[in-house]
Specification:
17% helix; 2 domains; alpha+beta
Length: 168
Amino acid sequence: MTAWYAVQVKRHNERRGQRQLDLRGICALLPLIEVIRRYRTRRVAALEPLFPGYLFAHMETMDATPARWQSLRWAPGVKRILGAGDVPVPVPDVVIDAIRERTQELGYVRPGLPYAPGSRVRIGWGPLAGLEAVFDRPMSRAGRAQVLLNLLGQYARVEVDTSDLEVV
């Protein structure tokens, strides 16, 4: 019988751990999430592990294949297999199915906007930094949004980067 197990790897070595498990013939799952980082004036999208320091391995039970378990335990970058004491505890298939479903379309998770139309936001960066506005709508997949800014008693539509917004 096979099941998924959570494997703790050394921090920032998730991809290395996945490669090592693949080389050993062990099916490994490393779910990724898209994050937007700001470097000076530009925004850069990067893929990072959804669960930093962890990945999932699909294997038979420890009693059925002890040699493969030793191969997993001693793979470079692997710290330990999560469980109770020395007994690995499988991750429910429902959890793995939900992760796979979420990553199926793009190969990674793309988080949605945390803002709903009408919610209050604060502009945190740029020439309008510190001003409060009302979130109107997302403009594009490139991360732009339209907000309503109260200027001199009237609302003006302003387009800003979503990464510049903070929830009030």
